[in-house]
Amino acid sequence: MDASDRRVARASAPSARGGVGGFVAAAVLLACMLSGCGSQQTVTPGPPTSPVSTHVAPTASPAHAHADTLRFGFVPGVHVAPGMTAPSDFRQATGGITIAQVTLSTLVSGTLYRFDARYGVVPDLADGPCQPQGDGSIVRCHLVATTFHDGSPLTADDVAYTYGVWLRPTFIAPGALGKLSEVRAVDTRTVDFVLTGLDPTLFTAALPAVYIVPRHALETSFAAFVTGTRNLDSADLAKLADTIADEATRDPPVCSPRVEALAALLAKIGVTLYREDYLTATNAFDACAYVQAASGVIRQTGIALGLSGLDAVAAAWQLLSFDWHPVGTGPYRLTSEDATGVHLEAWPGYHGGVAATRFVDLVPMTADGSGLLDGSVDVLQFADLALASRAAAASTEVRVVTLPDVGFYGLTFNVRAGRLFADLDLRRALQLCIDLPRDVDTAIGGSASPVYGPVLPGSWADDPALPRPARDTTAARKLIEDAGWQPRADGIYAKDGIRLRADIVVRANRAERVKMADLIALQARDCGMDLHSRPTSWDDILGQLFQYPHNLPGTNTPFDLYLGGWATFPDPAVALSQFASASITDERHADATVFSNLMGFSDPAFDRLLKAASSTYDMAERGRISREAQQELAAQLPMLFLWASTSTDLVRSAVATADGPLDLGVPHWAWQPERLVVEEPEP
To answer: Mind giving me the DSSP string for 260-322?
Structure first.
């Protein structure tokens, strides 16, 4: 999905999801959206609960022959979260977080909590569940006794320092970690998370998102960066980055003459861009892709050089040798990295027990899937559908896994007084007019699934019991007529001289959305509704429709229908908060990229549920309340939920866990990468 329609001014929307580390970037962006989710809480919290709330100790492995190496394939330049700033930027290619990066992060690094198979949370570096103190504005965590891969002990100071960097606005957006304001070391193995108010998303967003690093190693790496860039000037670097961007976009582009000089400059900064990662479709070196990636490094270097203290460390993190060769507490340690990939070895000191497979390689591969088919690669995450289809057709040894993505789409109703769809019966009628599963398949072509609510399918807060009404034009017409509308000669309903007509505003440059709007309009006509898709530029949507009073672009008339997207996450707080009365736009809160409720939806029952869900650390209770809130949305229908993006993993059938077969029916199938094995064929 492109940048989240609702919050494009605040963050980019990733396409991160399940698989090994696939939700790392999503967790970062989730945290970026949490600062305005809660209201004043009064409930005294209890300890957090989860489907899994204690460390998962490895069980004895069955007597199977396992290969000594597990190989993850990645296609250089395929990105999980374009434009985001986060640690472990391996193989930046054209910028942003790559598939290899998030996989590497999960294998090498550790967090206080980790996601389980359904994106509940499990203590990782926390020695058991962290405990809220008093009114819940302080959460105390005790750390496991373990060491980093360099032999230094994990301490509370490492945790506090890591979070201190993450809290800087130069690292991620202000408020990125919800209501977290400070992390304090109480003693060597105890930390306090200080919040501005009770915030249950601390457990389900912040704690699983922040990879703990050894303070001494990060500071040493930053000192080397400062030394290497001592003679560089911030303004000069910004100017050079602008020049490169201009030259690379000329017709014809000018790229090759700068390659060698840029490589030398990158070496001075301490960053290596492998030319093997910048190839054309014919495997020729793509100089323009290389220099554009280099310009991003140069620009970020200039930004970091203009700052001081933790702000400078935060801005420089992606450029540091530590980031490219991380030292963590994870089940695998980095042994080498070169143009052929990244090579990891099981770390004997891992606090969860030694990993079941001795080596893990991250191997660059081409998009034709040949590595999977010939067995030289075992897992390929984020595969494109064409590749998945070819692989499945070519080999029964390859399993195709379809997983929920964070990109959600819906038809937003303007339910403000005086607008057409302020009438709930008309909203319900339109829902009954469309054949959602067929429309999603027709418009999106297999890379999406229909949804009936805003919560990630299969996650701990999902409600699979939400109503899924089938198309029923007779029932739809009855609802319309019971509301006082009468059919005219042309078959379109009218009431009090008003024709049942509306435009569906949709981004003109998103073909699948325009197609869905056209399908909705076509099917609505069978129910006597005269709807028309209105493709509109993104600039006009941002500049007018997303600004109160939310007029149709080019008019002084408020919109009735808008088809757009947003990013959802395992924790339901962000997805549900966009329907809160506190998020309604008005004269004082005009920007719908900040106050997301441009529909004007207000439901006291829903608001009470949202407040209750944000007032407890008990995940089981939060899940129950969130499912009740989803049912209330289904009943009031402020939005017609349409589809969620899906992504595809390819997994060889030989890949299993040390304890038995893989469960590929959960959204986060490889949440314990240290238990993955490749079974050898029996002789």
So the answer is: HHHHHHHHHHT----GGGSB-TTS-B-HHHHHHHHHHHHHHHHHHHT--HHHHHHHHGGGSHH
Element of type H or E holding 133: strand 131-133
Amino acid at 57: A
Rounded to 5°, the CA angle 520-526-530 comes to 65
Out of 24-33, 66-75, 234-243, 670-679, least confident range: 24-33
CA dist 572 and 284 (Å) reads 45
**Tokens of residue 204, six digits:** 């389900």
pLDDT-derived band at 431, boundaries 50, 70, 90: very high
Residue 498 tokens, joined? 């008003």
Q: Distance between CA atoms of 302 and 275, rounded to whole angstroms?
A: 23
How far, CA to CA in Å, does 8 sit from each of 35, 174, 492?
Answer: 16, 15, 37
Whether the predicted pLDDT of 54 surpasses 50: no
Q: How far apart are CA 1 and CA 297, in angstroms?
A: 25
In 3D space, the residue among 372, 420, 419, 360 whose CA is nearest the CA of residue 399 turns out to be 372
pLDDT digits (tens, 9 = 90+) for 44-53: 333 344 333 3
Q: What is the pLDDT of residues 459-483, one digit of tens each?
A: 999 999 999 999 999 999 999 999 9
In a 3-state reduction of DSSP, which class is residue 498?
Answer: strand
Give the bridge partners for 199, in sequence order: none
SS3 of 593-645 = CCCCECCCCCCHHHHHHHHHHCCCCEHHHHHHHHHHHHHHHHHHCCEEEEEEE
pLDDT exceeds cutoff 60 at 178: yes
CA 534 – CA 514 distance, rounded (Å) = 8
Domains with residue ranges and CATH for the chain = 223-324 (no CATH), 404-646 (3.10.105.10)
Q: Which residue has the tokens 């149709």?
A: 552
DSSP strand pairing (448-450 vs 639-652): antiparallel
Which of the 8 DSSP states describes residue 682?
Answer: P
Which residue shows structure tokens 């100071």? 157
* pLDDT tens figures, 82-119: 332 333 333 333 233 344 545 667 899 999 999 999 99
| Widest CA span in the chain | 82
Say which DSSP state 449 is in: E
CB 670 within 8 A of CB 428: no
Q: Which amino acid is at 154?
A: L
Q: What is the pTM of this model?
A: 0.85
* Phi, psi (deg, nearest 5) at residue 554: 85, 5
Number of CB atoms found within 10 A of residue 306's CB: 15
91: left (phi over 0), alpha (psi -120 to 50) or beta: left
What pairs with residue 400 in β-bridges?
650
